[in-house]
């Protein structure tokens, strides 16, 4: 679902036919870089979520033992 939305955003933000091929290629490369950066942020957030869930699990286990 997220990928579909990202693709729709990319398509809707592509320059029109009045732009040169060079301009379109440059713009697509810029969008690809933005997508890479967003993916890196998403991966970092997923890693942080996993770390927080592991910490929470340890806390819960400690509370159960007490």
Note the topology.
Blueprint: H1 2-13, H2 21-65
Instruction: Spell the H/E element sequence.
Output: HH
**Helical amount:** over 70%
The class by helix and strand makeup works out as mainly alpha
Proportion of residues in extended strands: under 5%
Q: What about the largest sheet?
A: none
Q: Helix segment count?
A: 2
Shape: rod-shaped
Low-confidence stretches: none
Number of domains: 1
N-C termini distance: 43 Å
Instruction: Say how many strands there are.
Output: 0
Rg from alpha-carbon coordinates: 20 Å
Mean pLDDT: 88
Can you walk through the features of this model?
The protein has one domain (2-65). It has 2 helices and no strands. It has helices spanning 2-13, 21-65. With 66 residues, it is mainly α. The protein is 86% helix and 0% strand. The protein starts with a helix and ends with a helix.
